[in-house]
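Propose amino acids for all 157 sites.
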């Protein structure tokens, strides 16, 4: 029974963030949502492509995440790109605020998922990659893929 409650079900992932940024640290936070947003998330509808996190007055907010309107919610529906409050401990917010003030550091959402009944987001403290770093990462990934293919051919032959 406990394993079902703690089961993690992914809704959305920001793959682009791993390509554009070097993820220095990660933090799991709760999401403050309205009912129609929860229904849309449970249906697997969410986009983090243009999303980012802002900190104001010692609170974190998810900005630019697109959760489409729930079609059965009629008048009680939500705005798809509204700012959503994130729940984290004060000391975690203070530590991340300090690190974000450094040049070239930002907070990006990496995933949105459910743990049991609760909607959670995985945030990443990120530093921007330069163009040559991106090329290097792509080359490294291609090399690994090629080595795996060569090993597979060696086992078959």
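Proposal:
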């Amino acid at each position: 029974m406990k394993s079902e409650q703690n089961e993690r079900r992914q809704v959305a992932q920001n793959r682009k963030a791993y390509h554009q940024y070097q993820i220095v640290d990660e933090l799991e936070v709760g999401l403050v949502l309205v009912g129609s947003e929860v229904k849309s998330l449970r249906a697997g509808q969410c986009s983090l492509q243009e999303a980012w996190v802002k900190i104001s007055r010692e609170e974190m907010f998810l900005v630019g995440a697109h959760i489409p309107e729930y079609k059965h919610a009629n008048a009680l529906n939500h705005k798809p790109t509204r700012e959503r409050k994130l729940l984290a401990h004060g000391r975690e917010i203070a530590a991340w605020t300090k690190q974000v003030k450094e040049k070239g550091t930002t907070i990006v959402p990496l995933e949105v998922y459910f743990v049991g009944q609760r909607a959670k987001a995985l945030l990443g403290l990120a530093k921007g990659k330069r163009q040559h770093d991106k090329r290097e990462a792509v080359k490294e990934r291609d090399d690994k893929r090629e080595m795996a293919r060569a090993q597979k051919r060696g086992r078959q032959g």
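The two ends are 47 Å apart (CA to CA). The chain has one domain: 2-129.
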